């Protein structure tokens, strides 16, 4: 991984996008096991339909994990200072998540050079699923 340097990063720069395969039932089952979140609305179609949903859908935190992958594909995890997200849409089966980040601010705090990033996760139709921001330290 080539870690970006503070002096080489400009406001407006984009992180390399993270494009993911379509969400399927296997993805959801594996995430249940990995996360310990066994809410039946994500794996049991009968339960989901009783909740007036057409089918099961992805855990919101799965999309947050994808944003985490976006960040750690850009900098080592030890350089991440904060992440905040807001859920804005449901990720249905068949949706292909794509995650994006953009530098929106450069500043210094606690003796470190840092950048603030705007984050978002959308599906293949451009429907927004998550919005957020992160702060990372750069050398």
TrEMBL record:
CDD domains: SAV4209_like (cd03453). InterPro entries: HotDog_dom_sf (IPR029069), MaoC-like_dom (IPR002539). Residues 23-110 form the MaoC-like domain. Signal peptide: none annotated. PANTHER family: (3R)-HYDROXYACYL-ACP DEHYDRATASE SUBUNIT HADB, 3-HYDROXYACYL-THIOESTER DEHYDRATASE HTDX-RELATED. This is MaoC-like domain-containing protein. It comes from Paraburkholderia saeva.
């Amino acid at each position: 991984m080539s870690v970006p340097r503070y002096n080489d990063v400009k406001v407006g720069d984009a992180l390399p996008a993270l494009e993911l395969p379509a969400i399927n039932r296997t993805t959801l089952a594996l995430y249940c096991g990995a996360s310990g979140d066994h809410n039946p609305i994500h794996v049991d179609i009968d339960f989901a339909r009783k909740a007036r949903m057409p089918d099961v859908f992805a855990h919101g935190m799965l999309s947050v994990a994808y944003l985490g992958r976006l960040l750690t594909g850009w900098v080592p995890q030890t350089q991440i200072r904060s992440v905040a997200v807001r859920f804005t849409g449901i990720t249905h089966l068949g949706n292909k998540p794509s995650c994006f980040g953009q530098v929106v601010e450069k500043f210094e705090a606690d003796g470190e050079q840092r950048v603030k990033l705007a984050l978002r996760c959308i599906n293949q139709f451009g429907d927004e699923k998550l919005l957020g921001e992160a702060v990372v330290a750069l050398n």
